[in-house]
Design goal:
ATP-binding, transmembrane transporter activity, AAA+_ATPase, 8 helices, OB fold (Dihydrolipoamide Acetyltransferase, E2P), 2 domains, 6-stranded mixed sheet, ABC_transporter-like_ATP-bd, binds adenosine-5'-triphosphate, alpha+beta
């Protein structure tokens, strides 16, 4: 059935370049007005998927629908989507306003309407007073906003953004992040945002699709991706985690019973697909705490520590040689001496059995 609340539906999309398969049957649905992020390491297929939505590439299998309509037969300029590229691709010899109106005039808008719309989107990105400058006379962040204004000008239904902040330095990137987010809210159109930066994804998105090697690993809101990762890849790629080898004795529904290294038993939430047998538990470093040797869930030996200002990273080893990291907040305890035997307590609800 057709679901009109979906701005974009990606349905079992396969993309091959000769013998290379860049997308292996990828599915996801992006809602109207949603800030949706494709996140994954270099080469996982993010840009390929964006290019398939934009129409710069044809899919090898599956379908892409925009507001319920299969867009395969439509050329890029008929798709009601627009793209903001990493390098902005502004015309250096044109004014800011002309850069923004250029695409409108090519689409057949009248000069007067194009100029009015151009000034409107420049107001939206707070660049009204720069309308007559050339791109070379603007900062990187301002050029990025011109590129955004230009892409928004024809009122696309979906805006695609391919690592639009990666050319900016860290401070500026953080400032532009919140601007971009508020512009998205104001326009109410769906943004499909590509990044390999997990912090960018966590801070800006309504939902994130984590991709690896042409597959979707998990789709969900940032908190769910961080707190309830389903696979080792997601647990490891998003933030920092401890992957602990465990023996799963029973899985019933979303709860697993397992045995920790050292023999202690515990019940914990399990990702869909988790099975009895050897398994991996993910526990974030900030959700482990120290206690006396012989107490807690795990027995560990202190190895080393790294002072990080707001907190300290404690590096530990379990009896089987596995390494664990504990994050201790500044002022919340003393750092044990190297070689000290300790207990580690896993905060209630903090452990998650992964599917692989
Ligand atoms: N035109 C092409 N011809 C052949 N292979 C390609 C082509 N474009 C992309 N690929 C391959 O497809 C895979 C996915 O590439 P893609 O650019 O989508 O990854 P990405 O996740 O966007 O990476 P990055 O973050 O580095 O841009 C890679 O293995 C890449 O080498």
């Amino acid at each position: 059935m057709l679901d009109v609340a979906q701005a974009v539906e990606i349905d079992s999309v396969v993309k091959r370049y000769g013998t290379v398969t860049a997308l292996h049957g990828v599915s996801m649905a992006i809602a109207e007005g949603e800030f949706f992020t494709l996140l994954g390491p270099s080469g996982c297929g993010k840009t390929t998927l964006l290019r398939c939505i934009a129409g710069f590439e044809q899919v090898s299998g599956g379908a892409i629908r925009l507001h319920g309509e299969d867009i395969a037969p439509l050329p890029p300029h008929k798709r009601m989507v627009n793209t903001v590229f990493q390098n902005y691709a502004l015309f250096p010899h044109m004014t800011v306003l002309d850069n923004v109106t250029f695409g409108l005039l090519r689409r057949g808008w009248g000069t007067r309407d194009a100029e009015a719309r151009g000034r409107e989107v420049l107001r939206l990105v707070q660049l009204s007073e720069f309308a007559q400058r050339r791109p070379g006379q603007l900062s990187g962040g301002q050029q990025q906003r011109v590129a955004l204004a230009r892409a928004l000008a024809p009122r696309p239904k979906v805006l695609l953004l391919d690592e639009p902040l990666s050319a900016l330095d860290l401070k500026l990137r953080q400032a532009v992040r919140s601007e971009l987010k508020s512009i998205q809210r104001e326009t109410g159109i769906a943004f499909v945002f590509v990044t390999h930066d997990q912090e960018e994804a966590l801070t800006m998105s309504d939902r994130i699709a984590v991709m690896s090697a042409g597959h979707v690993q998990q789709v969900g809101p940032p908190r769910e991706i961080y707190e309830a990762p389903q696979t080792r890849f997601v647990a490891d790629f998003i933030g920092e985690t401890n992957l602990i080898d465990v023996t799963v004795t029973q899985v019933s529904g979303a709860v697993a019973r397992l045995q920790l290294p050292g023999g202690a038993a515990m019940d914990c939430p399990a990702a869909p697909g988790a099975r009895p047998g050897p398994g991996h538990l993910s526990v974030r470093p900030e959700r482990l705490s120290l206690c006396a040797a012989g107490q807690g869930d795990l027995a560990a030996v202190m190895q080393d520590h790294v002072y990080l200002g707001t907190d300290t990273q404690l590096l530990m080893r379990l009896a089987d040689g596995a390494r664990l990291v504990v994050r201790q907040q500044a002022g919340s305890g003393t750092v044990p001496d190297p070689g000290a035997a300790l207990g580690l307590r896993i905060e209630a609800g903090a452990a998650r059995l992964l599917a692989d």
